Amino acid sequence: MSSPLQQLTARFAETLAPLFAVPLPQPLVVPATNPKFGDFQCNIALPLAKTLGQPPRTIAAQIVERLELGDLCQAPEIAGPGFINLTLKPEYLAAQLRDLQGDPRLGVEPSPNRRRVIVDFSSPNIAKEMHVGHLRSTIIGDCLARTLEFLGYDVLRLNHVGDWGTQFGMLITYLREVHPQALTEADSLDLGDLVSFYRQAKARFDADAEFKEISRQAVVALQGGDPESLNAWRLLCDQSRREFARIYEQLDICLTERGESFYNPFLEGVIERLNQAGLLTEDQGAQCVFLDGFNNKDGAPLPLIVQKSDGGYNYATTDLAALKYRFTEDQVDAIFYVTDSGQANHFAQVFQVALRAGLIPPEKTVLHVPFGLVKGEDGKKLKTRSGDTIRLQDLLDEAVARARQDLESRLESEGRTESADFINEVAQRVGLGAVKYADLSQNRLSDYCFSYDKMLALQGNTAPYLLYAYARIQSIAREGDLDLEQRQIGALELAEPSELTLAKALLALPDVLAEVETSLLPNRLCDYLYELSKHFNRFYEDCPILKAPEPQRGSRLLLCDLCARTLKLGLGLLGIAVLERM
Ligand code: ARG
């Protein structure tokens, strides 16, 4: 089953292709910009008029004359210079909704563009704590993966963990000095300590030339496979990994870890490949590829260093090896990298070099999916009061604690008593849902301002508002003692404006997901769900439901059921679980 927009588009394409002997402007049909113009518009008469050298209204009239839309729309109207306005018939809407009742996918068909893709996201660094930047990548990447999976893509969710950098050289060197047990015994530090050791090690590394040199040698030893160093490295990684796992579990996020170290055996081969392609230049002992279109301050071409003068490899080399591996071994068609916008140059450079070296086969896609910074309410980078970066675990705990406070005071004001389990469950889902939704509902390209108060508000474009709309529908079902999903409704009657608006919104889900698929912008889905909830709330105010006579009662209960299922599905794609009661 397809959406009204998809059906109209197909109908236009069929009719117009034989009518005009020129390529048709796209898209053929778009949602109306204003409800007073109807539901959809076809605006192609204007560009066609130019191509064909005829007045646009004449073309529009030709189109309208040929179109057979009587089963879908009222008679099309030609407006202004030649826009064709279309309004869907209530009977058609009713028939479409009836078809949705038994469809668990709510009319969304697998995408014709589905293929095998990698979403590379989250990707924190070992021994460093996960921070809010990683949180954005984790939340956005997970939402994109869920959406693509739902659309029938085969998605490999990869966690490109930073587990192989110079940080290990200095960390191992430092720990050997101050806490040698950490290198031989599991769990002799907690991650908090590990992070502060990392900071101290970094300070030493920057200040002390001898320490720096020993650290460098430690990296070489590790990368060369020295068993003692490898063992220490493994212990440090395990420890970080467990901390990360706890956060993923709390956020209900699945990822396959394949860190930088995985590609270590392939780094030499990459250099070899670049060499064969004639791309390598030695510059002050380092192996470089000079880039097109990237210049340094003096206007000279910028090199991408792929092997340092000490023989070590870096972040870019690893990404080149990963690209090769992913296309040849994983055999994916596309790779999406979800990181902050600050890495745009890194990816542009890596992609350029990979293309020139033939590491990206033709017809394959690589795409950086960037996002802006997370800022505090003061508009500056998010920090704790003491000026440290906020730990992700603390941030999540705080959101849950505040959701619990809000809930407890609401329960008190409503004179309700609820079990501790209920309170825990609601606080968790609302708190974590609010954090995710606040991030996803912003255009990912903008910086976003982190505010517990805003994200937890019951009004506005927030998770609690949407969760509340869902819970409200469930309470209608409980009040009427109905299992909404089990009901089969025969006669449907839609007459009230708020019913019609809600019906149209319910039928637009496939269009919205198609848009998220191409733009990779989760906020499109959030906006849709928010509008849908508002339409539902208006309908709920305007129309009696349980007390209405048949066939309205049945029609309205179907609207309720479809709305609840759409919210559940949509929130699910955002990684947010609904609540039957709040
Ligand atoms: N570990 C990196 C960071 O924290 C992100 C890795 C992104 N993925 C990639 N293939 N480079 O900035």
Description of the structure:
- The protein is an alpha/beta fold.
- It folds into 4 domains: 4-88, 2-Layer Sandwich (Gyrase A, domain 2); 116-160 and 259-374, 3-Layer(aba) Sandwich (Rossmann fold); 166-253, no CATH class; 392-573, Isoleucyl-tRNA Synthetase, Domain 1, CATH 1.10.730.
- The protein is 52% helix and 11% strand.
- The protein has 20 helices and 14 strands.
- The strands form 4 sheets. The protein has a 5-stranded parallel β-sheet with strand order 7-6-5-11-12. It has a 4-stranded antiparallel β-sheet with strand order 1-2-4-3, covered by helices on one side. Strands 8-9-10 form a 3-stranded antiparallel β-sheet.
- The structure holds arginine.
- Arginine is lined by residues 120, 123-125, 160, 162, 319, 322, 337, 339.
- Arginine (ARG) binds at residues 120, 123-125, 160, 162, 319, 322, 337, 339.
Task: Provide tags for this entry.
Gyrase A, domain 2, binds arginine, single chain, 20 helices, 5-stranded parallel beta sheet
